């Protein structure tokens, strides 16, 4: 009684009118009881608004109390058979453990993760049993971005379902022989199982947000019915520190993506230790998401806490819950009930009194919300029913749940992959597995017969939801007709006399022709990141419109212009603003639509090449993992093609990055006909043949004349090399000059200099892809190594050049590494000299930059002459004469060091 008096006195000391305060509180209580919490909330918001308009300073807070968002008496209870579900989860926990521990007893370096699934098992079970639809005729299927480190648990479930064999589980993380299971979700390695890769961490939530928006896009444009589908993304609380995880939540709130659910598994730990040892990650994330317009559902406490919270009339328990930091919460679950009694409830005598009749075991059994099926179900149901907001569920769990002293809630939990016999026995006992002691050393997988009630229940639940998940569609059912190459005839012909265009303009014209195609036009998805005007593509604004769920609520400032900015509910362009990661995520959603939506889409993501693969390289790698199909267009590409821009704008290395992605098909075309042939080939391979490749094409903004295509050049363009201009035959000396992109024009000019100034004839080769030449050559090289008794094959590069004369000189607008890829395939006895733009970019004119980086016509000429001198065909003095003639400073600094 004295404590209550003390509390009243303390409140009165800070309250000039205690009675008035009590009257307001009583009135609010009456509103809640008679009209409900929504009415009370409305009245409070009106009062706060009035106070602020009258000048009162009322600080904003987007946080709520550290309790469950859904009151105990309002959450829907899970309708399933919880006894069966608990046993199924226990079997999955055991099999997931057995899979990882077995693998590491064979080879201790294979690794694997157990603790993430251990903390997620209840959440995943509720989703699989009650919420997530597989694709059917009536439902396109829900899309699952599953937390990467929880893969063993997903395999364990699929094993019980009969979709994976025991042999596959035994070969977890041993895939080289073609029968194992990938470490994490990898569609590239398991193309009929995993829908999406979710590692590297942070990519899952980012891609999920744009995937949800793309579903809205498809529905608005009438391409697919997606209004009953949800995107669910699971990620860890530590993962939310990745900028990609949080970077697009504002877009999701602004776009009201009610088809999106992110579940943050708040087990309070990352690899090295606590996520927020001195703070509260759930409160932090609640503030971030709520402020961004999300529906936030906190699932912190299990049902056992409901009675205690109901007794907490003075708010002491809630106060202690709020003041306790995550480092303490982690420590509680690493100890025992007695420790929790002393260190948590012992923070206030009234709390000790509250649990005085509870044993230490009772206290220990007070679960966190992430392990309570009813709390999880209620949260999932709220998320599923959301009408106008994306939902984030912040579910508090225990990392390594079920491992006891072997790793539960400990800093080492993330890396736990080996358990001793005692820990295995403890886990067997905790989850009541019917495995005898004499079999424990073998860690046998457990799978009861299909006629047991639990197994029948497992299959019935998935049958009710349309089938098993995760599952992936490797090919779309539909067939689309790709037009003939002649559809791009205007780009195949020479430019009119006196007419000059850029390859960017050529690409735009090919795209425009494609948009008009009756079969493919509606499937084209132009994606821009605020650079349409840079690339001369603003004409598309009016032509096909920019996608907006609300249309255009304003009159654009340039409405009187032909190419005004037009937003439309059925717009075709995805305009992502200044956001390369968002643009790439939209592209990935469209590029994998054949799988996720059974609709083939053709995305063209056009961006500054410098801000592409360098900035979003991890996403590009994920796109390869997802077997994406589409076009990445690197505009204003090359180190020297962009006038006046500087170091952070000039790209001399994107083709080096692209070469690292095995199913990326990269090209650096020079002429319009090359652009048309390459894009047409991409359509043939990705749309007609449904091959799992994607194209990276660099285009430039430099205007010049284009020669048009000659019969028979198509094959060489696509393979990466063809003879563009055959040199004269008057002179005794000859060289082979190769180039790509705009520097090929410098190579052509060098051929004229060699002929006119030095009596050297030169054949000029266009090399749209040194990377493809290198890949083909390496394939031939491998075949020869493995077939030593058979006639050796020759690479296409070698075949193309072996019948020619003279040294080979290459110049591109990229690092020398790009063209150095094919050195191994140069015909024997031939010299091979590469010029490139190594070093940082800088601002100047094109001509000056090409001189600075030593890739212009004069340096190509000098390189050719030096190669001839090295072969003894001309005297070194001739090279010196050329250096002097062209005004080259032989002592100029190396551009790499400048």
TrEMBL record:
Catalytic activity: N(6)-[(R)-lipoyl]-L-lysyl-[protein] + pyruvate + H(+) = N(6)-[(R)-S(8)-acetyldihydrolipoyl]-L-lysyl-[protein] + CO2
A family per Pfam: Transketolase_C_1
Domain PH: 1-33
Domain of life: Bacteria
The entry's keywords: Oxidoreductase, Pyruvate, Thiamine pyrophosphate
EC number: 1.2.4.1
Top EC class of this enzyme: oxidoreductase
GO MF annotation, one: pyruvate dehydrogenase (acetyl-transferring) activity
Cofactor: thiamine diphosphate
Stated role: Component of the pyruvate dehydrogenase (PDH) complex, that catalyzes the overall conversion of pyruvate to acetyl-CoA and CO(2).
Protein's UniProt name: Pyruvate dehydrogenase E1 component
Organism phylogeny: Bacteria, Pseudomonadati, Pseudomonadota, Betaproteobacteria, Burkholderiales
């Amino acid at each position: 009684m004295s404590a209550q008096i003390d509390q009243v006195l303390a409140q009165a000391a800070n309250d000039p009118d205690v009675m008035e305060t009590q009257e307001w509180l009583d009135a609010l209580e009456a509103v809640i009881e008679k009209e409900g919490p929504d009415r009370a909330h409305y009245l409070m918001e009106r009062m706060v608004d009035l106070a602020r308009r009258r000048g009162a300073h009322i600080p904003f807070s987007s946080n709520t109390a550290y309790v469950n968002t859904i009151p105990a008496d309002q959450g829907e209870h899970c309708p399933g058979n919880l006894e069966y579900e608990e046993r199924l989860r226990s079997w999955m926990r055991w099999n997931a453990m057995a899979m990882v521990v077995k693998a590491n007893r064979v080879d201790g370096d294979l690794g694997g993760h157990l603790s993430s699934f251990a903390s997620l098992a209840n959440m995943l079970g509720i989703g699989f049993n009650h919420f997530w639809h597989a694709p059917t005729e009536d439902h396109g299927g829900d899309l699952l971005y599953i937390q990467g480190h929880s893969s063993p648990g997903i395999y364990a479930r699929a094993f019980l379902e009969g979709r994976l064999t025991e042999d596959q589980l035994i070969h977890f993380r041993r895939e080289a022989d073609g029968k194992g299971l990938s470490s994490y979700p990898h569609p590239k390695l398991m193309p009929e199982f995993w829908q999406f890769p979710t590692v590297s961490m942070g990519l899952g939530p980012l891609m999920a947000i744009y995937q949800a928006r793309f579903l809205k896009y498809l529905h608005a444009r009438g391409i697919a019915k997606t209004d009953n589908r949800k995107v669910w993304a699971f990620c860890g609380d530590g993962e939310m520190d990745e900028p990609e995880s949080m970077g697009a939540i504002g877009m999701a709130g602004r776009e009201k993506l009610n088809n999106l659910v992110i579940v943050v598994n708040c087990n309070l730990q990352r690899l090295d230790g606590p996520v927020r040892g001195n703070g509260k990650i759930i409160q932090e994330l609640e503030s971030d998401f709520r402020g961004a317009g999300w529906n936030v559902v906190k699932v912190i406490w299990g049902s056992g806490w409901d009675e205690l919270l109901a007794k907490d009339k003075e708010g002491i328990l809630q106060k202690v819950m709020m003041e306790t930091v995550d480092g303490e919460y982690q420590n509680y679950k690493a100890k025992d009930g007695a420790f929790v009694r002393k260190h948590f409830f012992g923070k206030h005598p009234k709390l000790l009194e509250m649990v005085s009749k509870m044993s230490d075991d009772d206290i220990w059994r007070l679960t966190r919300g992430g392990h309570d099926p009813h709390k999880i179900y209620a949260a999932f149901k709220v998320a599923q029913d959301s009408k106008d907001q994306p939902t984030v569920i912040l579910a508090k769990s225990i990392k390594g749940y079920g491992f006891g002293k072997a790793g539960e809630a400990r800093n080492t939990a993330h890396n736990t992959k080996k358990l001793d016999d005692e820990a295995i026995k403890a886990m067997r006992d905790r989850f009541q597995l019917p495995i005898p002691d004499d079999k424990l050393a073998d860690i046998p997988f457990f799978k009861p017969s299909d006629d047991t009630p639990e197994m029948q229940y497992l299959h019935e639940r998935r049958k009710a939801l349309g089938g098993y998940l995760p599952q992936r569609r490797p090919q779309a059912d539909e067939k689309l007709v790709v037009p003939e190459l002649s559809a791009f005839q205007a780009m195949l012909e020479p430019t009119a006399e006196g007419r000059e265009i850029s390859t960017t303009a050529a690409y735009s014209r090919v795209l425009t022709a494609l948009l008009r195609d009756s079969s493919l036009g509606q499937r084209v998805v132009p994606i821009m990141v605020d650079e349409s005007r840079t690339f001369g593509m603003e004409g598309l604004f009016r032509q096909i419109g920019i996608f907006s769920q609300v249309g255009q609520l304003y009159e654009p400032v340039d409405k009187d212009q032909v190419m005004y900015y037009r937003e439309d509910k059925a717009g075709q362009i995805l305009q992502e603003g200044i956001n390369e990661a968002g643009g790439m995520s939209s592209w990935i959603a469209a590029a994998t639509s054949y799988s996720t939506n059974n609709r083939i889409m053709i995305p063209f993501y056009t961006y500054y090449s410098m801000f592409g693969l360098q900035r979003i390289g991890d996403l590009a790698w994920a796109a390869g993992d997802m077997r994406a199909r589409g076009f990445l267009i690197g505009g204003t590409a090359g180190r020297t093609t962009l006038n006046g821009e500087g170091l952070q704008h000039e790209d001399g290395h994107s083709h080096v990055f692209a070469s690292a992605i095995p199913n990326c098909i990269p090209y650096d075309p020079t002429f319009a006909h090359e652009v048309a042939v390459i894009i047409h080939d991409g359509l043939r391979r990705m749309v007609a043949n449904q091959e799992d490749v994607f194209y990276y094409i660099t285009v430039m903004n430099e205007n010049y004349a284009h020669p048009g295509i000659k019969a028979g050049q198509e094959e060489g363009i696509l393979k990466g090399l063809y003879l563009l201009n055959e040199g004269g035959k008057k002179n005794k000396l000859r060289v082979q000059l190769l180039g790509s992109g705009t520097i090929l024009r410098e190579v052509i000019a060098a051929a004229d200099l060699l002929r006119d100034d030095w009596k050297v004839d030169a054949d000029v080769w266009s090399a749209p892809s040194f990377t493809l030449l290198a890949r083909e050559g390496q394939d031939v090289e491998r075949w020869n190594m493995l077939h030593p008794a058979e006639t050796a094959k020759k690479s296409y590069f070698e075949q193309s050049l072996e019948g020619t004369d003279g040294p080979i000189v290459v110049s591109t607008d990229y690092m020398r590494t790009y063209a150095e890829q094919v050195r191994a395939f140069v015909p024997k006895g031939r010299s091979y000299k590469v010029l490139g733009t190594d070093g940082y970019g800088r601002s100047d004119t094109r001509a000056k930059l090409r001189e600075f980086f030593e890739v212009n016509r004069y340096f190509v000429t000098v390189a050719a002459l030096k190669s001839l001198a090295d072969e003894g065909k001309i005297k070194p003095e001739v090279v010196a004469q050329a250096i002097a003639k062209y005004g080259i400073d032989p002592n100029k600094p190396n551009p790499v060091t400048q």
